Give the backbone structure.
Amino acid sequence: MSCSTGKNIVVTIFGQSHSQAIGAVIDGVPSGIEIDEAAIADFMKRRTAKDGLSTARHEADWVNIVSGIVDGKTCGAPICGIIENGDINSSDYDGYKTLPRPSHSDFAAFYKHNGFNDIRGGGNSSGRMTAALCFAGAVCIQLLEKKGIFIGAHASSIHNIDDESFDSADITANVLNGIKAKEYPVISDDALEKMKKAIAEAKADKDSVGGVIECAVIGLEAGTGEPIFDGIENKISSAVFAIPAIKGIEFGSGFGGSSKYGSENNDDFIKRDGRIITAKNDHGGVLGGMASGMPVIFRCAVKPVPSIEKVQHSVDLISGEEKEITIGGRHDPCIVLRAVPCVEAAAAIAVADIVF
Amino acid sequence: MSCSTGKNIVVTIFGQSHSQAIGAVIDGVPSGIEIDEAAIADFMKRRTAKDGLSTARHEADWVNIVSGIVDGKTCGAPICGIIENGDINSSDYDGYKTLPRPSHSDFAAFYKHNGFNDIRGGGNSSGRMTAALCFAGAVCIQLLEKKGIFIGAHASSIHNIDDESFDSADITANVLNGIKAKEYPVISDDALEKMKKAIAEAKADKDSVGGVIECAVIGLEAGTGEPIFDGIENKISSAVFAIPAIKGIEFGSGFGGSSKYGSENNDDFIKRDGRIITAKNDHGGVLGGMASGMPVIFRCAVKPVPSIEKVQHSVDLISGEEKEITIGGRHDPCIVLRAVPCVEAAAAIAVADIVF
Amino acid sequence: MSCSTGKNIVVTIFGQSHSQAIGAVIDGVPSGIEIDEAAIADFMKRRTAKDGLSTARHEADWVNIVSGIVDGKTCGAPICGIIENGDINSSDYDGYKTLPRPSHSDFAAFYKHNGFNDIRGGGNSSGRMTAALCFAGAVCIQLLEKKGIFIGAHASSIHNIDDESFDSADITANVLNGIKAKEYPVISDDALEKMKKAIAEAKADKDSVGGVIECAVIGLEAGTGEPIFDGIENKISSAVFAIPAIKGIEFGSGFGGSSKYGSENNDDFIKRDGRIITAKNDHGGVLGGMASGMPVIFRCAVKPVPSIEKVQHSVDLISGEEKEITIGGRHDPCIVLRAVPCVEAAAAIAVADIVF
Amino acid sequence: MSCSTGKNIVVTIFGQSHSQAIGAVIDGVPSGIEIDEAAIADFMKRRTAKDGLSTARHEADWVNIVSGIVDGKTCGAPICGIIENGDINSSDYDGYKTLPRPSHSDFAAFYKHNGFNDIRGGGNSSGRMTAALCFAGAVCIQLLEKKGIFIGAHASSIHNIDDESFDSADITANVLNGIKAKEYPVISDDALEKMKKAIAEAKADKDSVGGVIECAVIGLEAGTGEPIFDGIENKISSAVFAIPAIKGIEFGSGFGGSSKYGSENNDDFIKRDGRIITAKNDHGGVLGGMASGMPVIFRCAVKPVPSIEKVQHSVDLISGEEKEITIGGRHDPCIVLRAVPCVEAAAAIAVADIVF
């Protein structure tokens, strides 16, 4: 099921970067839940390119919901949302059919599909598919909010510039909403300015930069989740790797925690205001695959965009000839900021499948 | 399906740390494949405690294969292997029923199961379950080897001591076998000595240490895998988080790559000996969820063992009283070395599901 | 996964009878397969209402394929086909919101969804959804034909009039195509005339009739399928019950065979033209869940259409009052003929999942 | 997943007729539920051969539950039950390795597995596997009873002798228990005597007989289930075909209903004692895949046992030679009575997956 995920809330994503449309089907949504289409549109907008920091391709990403909602409420039937692929210039990709772009999926997709893969815009492996992911995530986010579960993320670093971190033991919906209300999902305005500069410099140099996204899921009741194969970490990681640029994920103290002593990394239980919590949150809100009730915190590594205008080297898959390759088209020098809602969406899809 | 994973090769793990037995069922294995039970036993032994570096509990982990194999060959029926739980001292755990051990699953499991969870030895969330995972992985490893796919890992760090890294662009079965032939899965003998010392010191201090495991999967043909939800990264990460101590995973340049420029991180294609490869392997062998044909390389973070003999703090789940807790029993000061075959097993289960 | 089925070829159906659109996503289709859209349109037409025998609602059922096909060939991405719901008169259903139609899904759907179900046209439980099923089936049929597997069905009875049966041990693609080429899928022209008369009489009497559909799948290699839970019978039966009117299914001698002696019902193996076959086919082409290589033969019971214009009795779900109910709108007096391609489609979806 | 079924309650069956053991793993069972092992043993006994009516092979079918239960209650971990295969005489099957028994799975299994299938006792396709099915079903039955859902069946016909039918609109737990308390699951004592005679005659004639089993599921709340692919009919039919001898299934009026008029077959809603029910139950308790709240009623066709001692004809799969075959060993002349609890078990597995 390469394009479906989930057991209770099943999300199926279809389309290619330059097919007539892309979209998502969300099955298993309980009936009678009010869906705010304006909030979905707002969420989609957060993923859209902005003011020179991102790709010049204009993606309005208006979602046409063709099923599953009656009079503004879910009716229990699958929700299908369709996004037309406008503003397409497939001819940009003619040259790449047999000359794979470095660190793109072209090479692998060619062999997987014996050359029948849709090369236009990266086909089914394109970052474009995250628009459908975001639609599905936007619906799941609304479902989760009804249960008091909130998800928010920020760019915790771009290139070598760090944003402030979440206070992992104390995150509120207000904190998350505050970041969403900003023009860019970066806590520190100072860091944002530096990030913008780094992106602009990379762009000027025909290069690209990556970063790290930190995401929090709050409101999960202790005991939510499963041990072994279907834990919170298994499911969130599996969902987040659906975003093409993600190359790593860590929960709580993660890789940093691996060099600590147990006595440093362990989180003592304490009682605070009648609730049992942990004083700090190195476990990232997950114990044995299940929620501890503390915020679930994870960070994921976003690789620098592979589409750069610098001269690179490739090999023609038919002739076997080594060739230079220069990637034209309209590409982001950095997709970290746009990937922030994508990470939230992936997390929401995973978490919704767990709690419903 | 919390205890099952996979679509083509379906692995189901059952048991608790102190139940009569644990085991695994492996369904979907093609018929007519020779299974080397001695090799399975050898693999299980790699997970077993050794000479003071690990827990004093003696776990022979002999697997009784009760179905699926006739005259040494798979017959197409599910393979079920059963491991008796001997050498159990459940009374060690009497005290923890309502006093959760810090950074253990006890707390979450209590709420998930309204107190009906099996607290003995950590129940179904115990590291003990990785014995069943290793059995399933050992079978999958044999299946994969028939297809020329080999998996091997090493402790790339313990606490603050680093082992040498794999040469990510050039790993052979010989390299992997060489590490397996060593007493401990560490490339550098010098690093191993320092690691042993760090572990001994932690133990002497009633503390514990964690580390990082680096794993390679070689022999995957370009195009193996899927985009979006069922890619190599999705499936390996999901499987690896079945190991209780894992808190992070990264592929290729991973988190390090997120601060590089695209021009540094991208892997040019070149032609070498008639094959198209990449000169370096920052993409970790995975492009768009699919294999590039280069070694699949990932690293995962192993948290320090939460069971330490130091005084810690907890809260009684019934009385609500804050209490001191000291964990007795027999516990590893470091499970990184033992977790190395577990990571290989998890990767094998994920990869077998992809290639069969 | 109520609206998805399959493991290798995953079909997801979305929409409601009166939503903006319905459709299907077909995932797992190998790349490079030519898809004949005209053949899909022809297949859809077979399900469409005809000349007074069926409903007056005009359903063009043109499928807009928005993804998965490039230059007439599959590209490996999911195929999504969308069918707009035109010619809708939802006001017909205003009265049924709380007054459930006898033997319709309204009653159950109301309780399942606490009244939030889409009552218009039967919502997600409507026979209308079989248009999406037929689209998915039409694609699967084309995939199967590439492997030499052909599927065809006919109305083996309507009301109390029997068509001729298939010669279960000897069915060819020509036989199946011959039936498809006819205006109605009935082997005997004489039987068809009587069936038409029975339908017309039922209509005149504001009543409806049902029937039985016999379906054959030919070309499956011996050994195709699985024992226990995923056998050919399990999967075909599960798929066929997705058609709302189906209330029974039998393979081979089926219910009739249950009163035979083993010596009568058993099918001896014989050698014919170098192939091992069975002389007769009481086993219906399935042994232990797996194909024997003989035609897979099954029959399914189609209940008479529950929408009839006669006065019936119901109870208002809110007031609890017993009331008379007369169903207006445009309804088929018999859907057996239109259900024939639906049964083929369901079988194709099940079989495609088995053989791919 | 040929040997697993379910989404919420996942049942995995392993073993072969003559492997060391067979068994089942039941995952997803909520914690804190009391499991009555004596009741499981009683259920298993109902499947066991009795007094000359069935096979001479003595199958004690004692289930060793090795995990998932602590102090008599479920702990949330998967329940694994293991049944040793004693009293095996595999040499009986030496002759069938390449000479397939008519209407057995041997032929198909040989081709599926290129001859590596376990021929002994029918391997993984054997009726023996229903012991594991019954164990899983017995557990599910206990889970369902806690929710007020009861399942019971009887032999509604053997050969050409009919038992009385259930009163489909009015079945109580008492009625079902009354049948279970009898030595054989037949309502009419008179019918039973005739059935015994028919079985004895078939046995004397080295022949076998089949029959029909009628099963009821009571206590499902209206609205339970799903439309389209995961309805009650889809899931029960899929589960019941896991029993090797089943060749057909019908719900409610089933095949008989297909020749009725809509006005006859439709079930009016009425109010009785404050509840909305249907006066009769031709819909078999299922409307649009969902429960109506009336008893779910289905009948399934059991083919006559294919193992008969009469001379039959087969073809050697290696030499291609046509040969006579006479089946020795110890075989039932009729398995309908023993299959009654198997059908209940299959239904329980399907229904438990729906309601949990």
Notes: Chain D has a mean pLDDT of 94.
